[in-house]
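Q: Please design a sequence for this.
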């Protein structure tokens, strides 16, 4: 489609800034003219801002169609087992508090002694929710080696929320459960649970912000450092370095459809340069929804041999939707910081339940020990207010402290009820010795929607293990060319921008999709979420998309007739 108005915005902004003399100072912490222009474009053309406008247009669409919004990744399903269990266990814990002391609406605290026996007496194995809780506690005792009374006391206090998180980073029994879940779902056979530290956070987004803050504050990333970003990628993640004004220089490590959305050798080679300090990716990717291949994982091991200080940050929120998924952390635990969120699989985006996981032996802690003495002294003074041995403070604990500006470290940590909910979601998976029926159902759900959409669009389906099928990218220009010919596609390129097309799709047909280039995806692409509508809705989206193209084709023919006359 014709060149984006973004280029004109960039040119005008740069000229205006130059003439006004603004934004041309150099140095750490000063935003350059180019950075200002880029940030202006992000404000003008952010993919999520574009979609928000189109949602309003779709409500009053010309055809009067019901709105079909496939722009958001929020699933239209929830996990009920964890929710019922949370409510049931909360009731049990409240009764435990009343057992300690009960005066009017005031109760005491749960007591550890004998809580296991009281739990057994309170649970009815004939009730499905109680039966799950019994199985979950048995799994924690038998498979994870946790003490029953200690586990139930921790969970009872936590679900009531009557104490600050202690330790701040993660409740002890909860950390064991979360580690077991991560190993089962993401590590593909690698045994790392016993050597992994977990910090539950307010969703994956908070995890990313905390990590970038701590990397910058601890001098592991400095203004001017190069970080590599695996693109296409979730738009806000591209904006973190500039929005937070860290002064980082981003380079793209691009995956393409030609490589089945894997990373080509030439792109991976960029990471071998020691001047690249960090590599940031989403795996499986967003918006392409493809996981890295085994070949790429092996190649990343070779990259680290040449650039051993590289910090890899991977967001694996879609990992469970990819068959035989294997996280980068499972092959490079020393160099990798893992971020995970329960939001998509379990339908808990509003709960804000995510986590950061790091190996006990990791590159960040080593690099902290190698900082120049002046930096070490600065950080020593910063963290001395919360520990008597600031030099020994691990990076992940610094992330926790930085999340509350250090001074409020003693009140940091994710809310304890949220930690219990994360443990219960994990246990709905862990209690199954074989296949988890819930994860299978979630995968089958998005697969059926993906298949329906591809069939309706007359496009070949990619059913490889790498394709998570949570999203898909559709090349609208290629679709137009295949149905109406090369000349029509060329006309459409010249007469409409991608934004024009999406505005028409929303305003005329009531369909909301996302702007592919906003994720650094190829020109002409749109992202369609397979998570938030029903199967038949995706068939209808395809029908309306073709209806819009047919409207364009009529306009094209009319213009051609006028030109011929």
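A: Design:
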């Amino acid at each position: 489609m014709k060149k984006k108005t973004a280029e004109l915005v960039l040119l005008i902004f740069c000229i205006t800034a130059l003439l006004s003399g603004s934004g041309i100072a150099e140095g750490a912490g000063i935003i350059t003219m180019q950075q200002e222009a880029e940030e202006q474009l992000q404000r003008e053309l952010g993919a999520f801002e574009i979609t928000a406008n189109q949602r309003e247009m779709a409500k009053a669409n010309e055809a009067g169609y019901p709105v079909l919004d496939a722009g958001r990744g929020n699933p239209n399903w929830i996990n009920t087992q964890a929710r019922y269990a949370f409510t049931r266990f909360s009731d049990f814990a409240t009764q435990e508090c009343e057992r300690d002391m009960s005066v009017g609406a005031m109760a005491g605290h749960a007591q550890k002694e004998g809580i296991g026996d009281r739990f057994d007496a309170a649970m009815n194995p004939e009730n499905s929710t109680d039966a799950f809780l019994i199985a979950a506690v048995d799994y924690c005792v038998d498979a994870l080696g946790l003490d029953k009374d200690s586990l139930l006391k921790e969970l009872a206090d936590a679900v009531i929320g009557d104490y600050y998180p202690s330790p701040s980073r993660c409740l002890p029994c909860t950390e064991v459960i979360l580690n077991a879940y991560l190993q089962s779902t993401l590590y593909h056979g690698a045994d790392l649970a016993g050597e992994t530290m977990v910090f539950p956070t307010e969703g994956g987004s908070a995890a990313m912000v905390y990590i970038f803050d701590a990397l910058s504050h601890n001098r592991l990333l400095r203004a001017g450092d190069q970080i590599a970003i695996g693109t296409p990628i979730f738009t806000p993640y591209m904006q973190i370095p500039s929005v937070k004004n860290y002064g980082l220089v981003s380079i793209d490590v691009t995956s393409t459809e030609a490589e089945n959305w894997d990373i080509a050798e030439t792109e991976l080679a960029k990471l071998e340069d020691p001047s690249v300090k960090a590599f940031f990716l989403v795996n499986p990717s967003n918006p392409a929804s493809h996981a890295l291949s085994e070949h790429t994982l092996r190649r990343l091991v070779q990259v680290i041999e040449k650039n051993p200080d590289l910090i890899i940050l991977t967001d694996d929120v879609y990992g469970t939707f990819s068959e035989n998924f294997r996280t980068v952390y499972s092959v490079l635990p020393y160099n990798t910081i893992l971020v995970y969120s329960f939001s998509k699989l379990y339908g808990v985006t509003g709960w804000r339940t995510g986590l950061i996981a790091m190996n006990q032996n990791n590159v960040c802690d080593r690099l902290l020990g190698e900082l120049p003495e002046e930096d070490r002294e600065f950080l020593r003074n910063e963290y001395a207010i919360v520990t008597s041995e600031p030099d020994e403070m691990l990076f992940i604990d610094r992330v926790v402290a930085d999340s509350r500006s250090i001074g409020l470290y003693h009140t940091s940590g994710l809310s304890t009820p949220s930690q219990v909910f994360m443990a219960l979601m994990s246990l709905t998976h862990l209690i199954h010795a074989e296949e988890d029926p819930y994860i299978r159902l979630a995968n089958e759900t998005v697969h059926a929607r993906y298949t329906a959409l591809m069939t309706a669009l007359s496009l070949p389906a990619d059913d490889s293990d790498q394709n998570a099928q949570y999203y898909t990218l559709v090349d609208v220009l290629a679709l137009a060319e295949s149905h109406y010919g090369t000349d029509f596609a060329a006309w459409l390129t010249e007469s409409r921008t991608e934004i024009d097309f999406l505005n028409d799709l929303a305003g005329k047909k009531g369909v909301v999709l996302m702007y592919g280039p906003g994720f650094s995806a190829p020109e002409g692409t749109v992202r369609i979420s397979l998570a938030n509508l029903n199967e038949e809705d995706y068939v209808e989206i395809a029908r309306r998309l073709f209806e819009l193209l047919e409207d364009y084709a009529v306009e094209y023919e009319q213009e051609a007739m006028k030109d011929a006359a």
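Q: Thanks. Anything notable?
A: The chain has 23 helices and 14 strands. The mean pLDDT is 90.
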